[in-house]
Amino acid sequence: MIELFLAPMIGTGTLPDPYRAKWQFDPDGLGRVTKAGSIRSARGGVGVLLLDATAEYLTLVRADSAMTSLATPSNIDNALNNGQANAAKTIFEGVGIPGEFINQGDTRREVIRAVVGLFLFSQRLEGRFGTGFWEKAQQRGVTFDTQYADFPQALKDEFVAVRDEHGWDNLGLTNQSTLRQIMKRVSEQFELTPIFIAGEEI
Amino acid sequence: MAYGDNRQQVASDTFDSSIGASWDNGPGDFNTYVFVTGGHIAPVSDVAPVGMRRNTGTYNNDQYSTITLQAVGGSYVVGVSVRHPTGATDESCYAGTAVQGGGYTIDEFDSAFGVTNLATGGSSAGFNAAGETMTCEAEGTTVRMGTNEGAGDTQRLSTTDNTLASGRPGMVAYDDNVQITAWAGGDIAVVGGATPHGVFGLAIHGPFGGPFG
Prior knowledge:
The complex is a heterodimer of chains A (202) and B (213).
Chain A: E1 2-10, E2 20-21, E3 33-40, E4 46-53, H1 55-63, E5 68-71, H2 82-94, H3 108-129, H4 133-139, H5 153-166, H6 179-188, E6 196-197, E7 200-201
Antiparallel strand pairs in A: 1-2, 1-4, 1-5, 3-4, 6-7
Helix pairs in contact in A: 3-6
Chain B: E1 7-13, E2 23-25, E3 33-36, E4 40-43, E5 50-54, E6 63-72, E7 77-84, E8 93-99, E9 104-109, E10 115-121, E11 133-139, E12 142-147, E13 154-160, E14 168-173, E15 178-188, H1 197-200
Antiparallel strand pairs in B: 1-15, 2-5, 3-4, 5-14, 6-11, 6-15, 7-8, 7-14, 8-9, 9-10, 11-12, 12-13
């Protein structure tokens, strides 16, 4: 059975204990996971985890309050109702994903792809500068509602460097754009990107 | 594009007499390979992991790396890698591996020698004979790995990641019970412009049916 989750990243980065999404490896070594993979926001952040595992294992994962079930193959194209969207906004805001990524009427697939788009930008930032987007913003006292004009210069420089590397323009953003708006726009730049997790295309 | 499409070889090596100067052997914190009489290479000892990257030739950001197996024995993890940066002390790369008794993996090494497991799956039990090949590809944000055990060169695993954008091909291993007899690497060429798979559909559709149904 296959299911997608939002999961915290765990691990210490060694070969016996690599960085990975929680539950990506069967903690008991019982072979209950056939395949698994994740796309992370940062090594110390959160990730979208795909599990192909036994029903028993997935039940354990769903029971973990640190995990959020995102979709199964049967519901990934279902639209979120108002209650589902609001509940998801609360969870996402708590882990550094703006609630703007989730709206009533969005399908689960659309939300997941938008979130992954943000994660891909954050990964590039981490690849070049050692820390993901949200973690770097937090380190510098920047919140979701901070305007670009008030970002520390170092954060601006890093954002511009990754922008230029991707060949983007200012994406319609201005000095008054908030971090929320910036995260939404950079996510949109990956709308056409193929997304694979453990061999499955989302 | 799909696994195996549009590969254009830039270089190859059959390790006939040595590990030549076209390799950075043991970049960063990786341990080294050693030449083995008979025209093979192997990890220096059971001190994982080992790695080396090509230091000559020009490679596109979209690239592949292929190793040909000579032998494996006992416990082993054998792999092939792409997008190694050229910094002397930087061991970053994407690595596709086969784990003895386990499955295939795609891992990402960072410049601090931290490892992130991006994906694990399949059974690698059949990857154990001389002449079999393993390939890792990086195309845009897609990383794929495959082997040619059984019926031809077949993709075993894929993932999406944007941490590493460019670099050089190479190889890695996490155990010394491995001998490699040949390597080849090169570019994945874009033909007729890049196709946005997500919008126009893709040959491979898993249970999620592709991004737009």
